[in-house]
Write a sequence for this structure.
């Protein structure tokens, strides 16, 4: 490469993964229970934002985008997050309701890769979560036209002042364009870093009868 943009030798940055291995015999037959086990271990070593995950979405004509989101729950339905339905990702998911999620827990040398189809959660569920958030975040959701181009920071601050005034002394209602999605997993891969880049990868794929098939993938 010609132009030098950093003094850091990026190509020399590498780390050997040595903590532990992962065998088919070690994992739960249910990937959501296995995720729960790894998630608890992640929160124990990385309490700040162990629930941060990359969400990748795609337009129907194949243009992908990815961004970091916060996981807000997981249960028998799948993985839950909240956002603005009119945002770039919201519009992509409307047109193409499929996505991938990725968690990377560096202290554990682990990642989890998830893919599946999405559904909006009920308005009741979105409302309950919205009102569990700090009031400042509720007002911020009203002020933001997420993903649209705005003139400047002052324009945003003015919108926040306006909605703060509008809802002073009142409950902030759930914005019509704000709510949750649940990603219903079709594949979930548990990745454990190993020495010499010979990592362990155990993938669960949902079968037509609803059962999960477990396979080891090559690193
Ligand atoms: C740690 C972290 C957590 C975030 N959590 C959320 C979230 O839960 N929901 C959300 O809409 N955006 C969240 N964001 C902002 C998104 O990364 C993104 O900027 C925003 O959703 C707009 O994405 P889009 O334009 O692709 O729709 C988070 C960002 C970071 C860095």
């Amino acid at each position: 490469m010609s132009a030098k943009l950093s003094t850091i030798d990026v190509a020399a940055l590498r780390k050997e993964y040595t903590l532990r291995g992962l065998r088919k015999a070690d994992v739960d037959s249910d990937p959501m229970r296995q995720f729960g086990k790894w998630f608890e271990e992640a929160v124990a070593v990385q309490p700040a934002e162990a629930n941060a995950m990359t969400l990748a979405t795609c337009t129907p004509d194949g243009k992908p985008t990815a961004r970091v989101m916060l996981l807000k729950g997981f249960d028998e339905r799948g993985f839950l997050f909240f956002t603005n339905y009119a945002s770039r990702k919201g519009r992509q998911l409307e047109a193409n309701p499929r996505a991938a999620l990725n968690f990377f827990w560096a202290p554990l040398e682990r990642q989890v890769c998830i893919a599946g189809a999405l559904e909006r959660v009920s308005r009741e569920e979105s409302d309950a979560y919205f009102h569990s958030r700090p009031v400042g975040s509720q007002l911020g959701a009203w002020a933001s036209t997420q993903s649209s181009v705005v003139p400047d920071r002052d324009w945003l601050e003015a919108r926040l002042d306006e909605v703060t005034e509008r809802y002073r002394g009142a409950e902030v209602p759930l914005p019509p364009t704000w709510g949750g999605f649940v990603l219903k997993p079709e594949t979930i891969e548990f990745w454990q870093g190993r020495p010499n880049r010979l990592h362990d990868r155990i993938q669960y794929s949902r079968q037509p009868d609803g059962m999960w098939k477990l396979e080891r993938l090559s690193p």
Q: What stands out?
A: The mean pLDDT is 97. Residues 134-173 form one domain. Residues 99 and 182 are 10 Å apart (CA to CA). The chain has two domains: 19-131+177-217, 134-173.
